Amino acid sequence: DIQITMRKDGGIRVVDDGRGIPVDIHPVEGISTVELVLTKLHAGGKFGGGGYAVSGGLHGVGSSVVNALSERLDVEVRRQGAVWRQSFTIGVPDAPLQKGEGSTETGTTITFWPSREIFETVEFDYDTLRARFQQMAFLNKGLALTLHDEREVDGAEHRTEKFLYERGLVDYVEHLVKAKKTEVVNADVIAFESEDTVKKIS
User: Coiled-coil stretches, from where to where (predicted)?
Assistant: First the structure.
């Protein structure tokens, strides 16, 4: 389950209930894996190869680039029975990862504010994010993605939309057909799936 919130102060908060980014000190880099993931390009999502049978990309370029282009980024990891926190300014750690209070939950929360000195505009467009997260939900069947907009937009109430597609691409094809309003050749979508954990494809 992933919750994305467009905050009143212009930031974006992303909360998941996954395993949480590993917090141990990386044996080669000498910094926490959280810091490594958020500061180094191409920091992989598998952390040594034992993590996932199949993955479609996790952290890598995305999070480290977001961090480098943000005037501030805060990360909170719930893992190993505790809450861990770290903050960054334009991609540079303010201090090392800190262990906080105990927690039985797992997951990661990242909140970032894009740099006004780098971007012409730091205003996020709801419809653009909505379309992107709906596509991601179609492509990751069974994954719930919820988009919240807490900003005051023309006096309108806060918006929330949840995307969850149990059949994934089948739901996507049906969505496209419905949008085009054309006559279909087959009433039912023809679909099949397979998984190979050796080749790590799905």
Answer: none
The domain that contains 94 carries what CATH number? Answer: 3.30.565.10
- The model carries a pTM of 0.83
Question: Are 14 and 6 a contacting pair, CB within 8 Å?
Answer: no
User: Residue 10 domain-assigned?
Assistant: yes
Per-residue pLDDT of the chain (202 residues; tens, 9 = 90+): 999 999 999 999 999 999 999 999 989 889 999 999 999 886 655 554 555 544 445 544 589 999 999 999 999 999 999 999 999 999 999 999 999 999 999 999 999 999 999 999 999 999 999 999 999 999 999 999 999 999 987 777 789 999 999 988 888 888 888 888 777 777 787 887 777 777 766 6
Is residue 162 a part of any domain in this protein?
no
Hey, CA dihedral for 130, 131, 132, 136, is it positive or negative? positive
